[in-house]
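Progress report, Aim 2. The chain analyzed during this reporting quarter is listed below.
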Amino acid sequence: MQPGQYLRVAWTSDLLLLGDGSTISQPSHGVSYAMATHAWVIRTSGEFYVPADVNGEWYFTPSSTPVVTAEYGQDAAADVQLQQYLDRWSAAGDPGGFQAGGGALPEGDGTLRGEFLTSLPDDADGVLSWFRSRQGSTSENHHGAMVGWTLMTLLASNAGTGDVRAAMLQALGTLPGSSIVDSRGSLRTIAFDSTFGEPGQAIDVQRHQTITVDVSTGRVSGTSDSTNAGGSIVPDGVGDVRNDYAVELVDGLPG
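Predicted structure tokens for the chain:
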């Protein structure tokens, strides 16, 4: 990018909400798949703009009003409860605006996206060593899960130099539980399976994540995240969240 140009990333997110008749939440945030008697897929969208200096000010547009795109196990009372939930969501709003360094990751220690992207080494072994020296994980499982999640989240920002992005992608591919599950032309979909707990523990929730990358450009077109073990009211294949991205270079911010 030249000075004044931005990487424009348009995103669409399909988020699953679960209900048990009294509570509505994202999976494992109050209602589990096994507990759910109702479920909805909620879509939002928006854009963010990444400057040439990733430590600079990223610009985020307000996200769209949430809309329901799929529903399972519905009844009138559940629909009323969902509408109240969505009304609170809309009232809270997402005003967008500028965030230095792209803001902090939604899970993590508060490190800004730009800090990650300018601090990570440009080789896969260096990336893994960098995380090993910084993360205070409770177990090997937790460490691997956090590294994989962080790499996918940073790659999905579509920001950073080509060398660092390639190193992150190669590092992701070396993690246990990582494999290529689809290949079409220059597109590769990588799956990463992890758990934050240890086998037999109550928190041993299995997490299945995917990321689709155009290896000719290094750009990410989609990610998904699921803890759906199957056998619930939610059909198999519908996960916790699905994100799609479209990327282009633009000469300025929206007027």
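The mean pLDDT is 93. The radius of gyration is 19 Å. These observations will guide the mutagenesis work planned for the next reporting period.
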